[in-house]
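User: I'm putting together notes for a lab meeting next week and I want to include a structural view of one of the chains we've been expressing. I don't have a solved structure, so I'd like a prediction I can at least talk through. The sequence is below, exactly as it appears in our construct file.
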Amino acid sequence: MQPNIVLIMLDQMSPQSLPVYGHPIVQTPNMSALADQGVVFENFYCNSALCGPSRFSMMAGQHNSRIQAFDNASDFPAAIPTFAHYLRLAGYRTCLAGKMHFVGPDQLHGFEERVTTDVYPGDYGWTPTWDDPDRIHWWFHNMLSITEAGPYDRTLEIDYDEEVAWQAERWLYDAARSRDKRPFLLTVSYMHPHDPYLAPRAFWDKYRLDDIDMPTVPNIPLEQRDPFSRRMWQLYDRREYDVTDEHIRAARHGYYAMTSYADDLVGRILRPLKALGFADNTVVMVTADHGDMLGERGLWFKMVFFERSIRVPLIMHWPGTLSPRRVSQNASLIDLLPTFLELAGAKAPAPAAPVDGKSLMGLAQGSSEGWEDTVIGEYFAEGTTEPVFMIKRGQYKYITAAGDPPQLFDLQADPHELVNLAGNPDYSELAHRFASEAADHWDSAALRAQVIASQRARLLVQEALLTGKITPWDYQPHFDATRQYNRNYGGELYDTDRRARIPYREEPPKREVGE
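Assistant: Thanks for the context. Below is the predicted structure for the 515-residue chain, given as structure tokens.
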């Protein structure tokens, strides 16, 4: 029997800030309960530390360079098969609630239903300009997110996530009373705990400011930084605001509070699953698109290959099938598509495009046989003018970009990535192997040319589409009010009130006239 699949995606959620992964004060009872009864992947990664590219590679099961998912304004072509396409063909009902950052006129990418719009634009307006690397775009991150951190009664992000949670809950109730009994894939994608660090007041009050830890690795002077993280710091800091220790502590306070709020949003999906009888035959996965540096090393947000930026949580829960365990092998978001195909079973179609990932079910069930223990990361967006690549294998991580000195870290001995071993004679052979592998795997100059050509084309198209009559690509949710509640037409609508009840009960028999 095919299980239902619920994928819950948080935004900018670093596992290091979850109690499941060892944080001492953050409170996430829903995710912790899932983890206690499920499988926790300890070394799980995104494949690009930026929202759109990370999500596109995840949905396609392909590396970003293969599908040209370069940045947050990259077109996601409709012809690329996603896990939603494959699962529809495998007999699943598919729905998206929340953010997926689709860019382009196709705003479904295989989902039959989409019950909310996106929180971000679907056009090419956020295209970087490698031709003009000094240009500051209005949409770049800046340190205002840190200096304004604090408790808020309402924000745009709260509005959005409340809508996502409500629509996802409603969809589950509709699925329970629907005559469509196909298994379902429900993807619920929240905005929190993504910056700005504006926390719902009730969740801010769960934490004492004095208990908030400061960064483990304090600010590293600019001249001592590696070139990539130096450029990234210059991208969003720019010395526009004076950032104090009080600001940093408040931003981390906000992030922890937003994480607890995100956990509450997770619970709002778990509760109806249980109440409706879906839980026992539903695989629930909780993950994120990337992490947040949160002031470590003086860096914020994502867009670098340090652990707090590139590593993400993954919790898998399937009662009666997956036993509680922790998985130490390296894996990544591109492994979700083949995992879903395995869950779909014999009805799943053969892939019609390359699949760079591998099913996680073996690892989740305790077998690492044949697992390569390697993750590939790529970055092609703002803050650089050269492609940046990462190879994580076993305990070692290698980072390289044209014109920058390579970086090699032993994460077992150096979890905070403070000692670059690339120039250490004792590691010269390992560094050489990684360098050769990177050179064989990527043609950096050719990829750079592709990125710049893509940017130029998108910038021209965007300017044209904003000239004259504008036809937005942003998704417009459609609800047919003529099919809701009580109406006086349509033969099957006469019993709308009774059919909306859970549990459904047939109308009791009427007495015969004269009895």
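A couple of points you could mention at the meeting. The chain has a mean pLDDT of 95. Residues 498 and 508 are 12 Å apart (CA to CA).

User: Perfect, that's what I needed.
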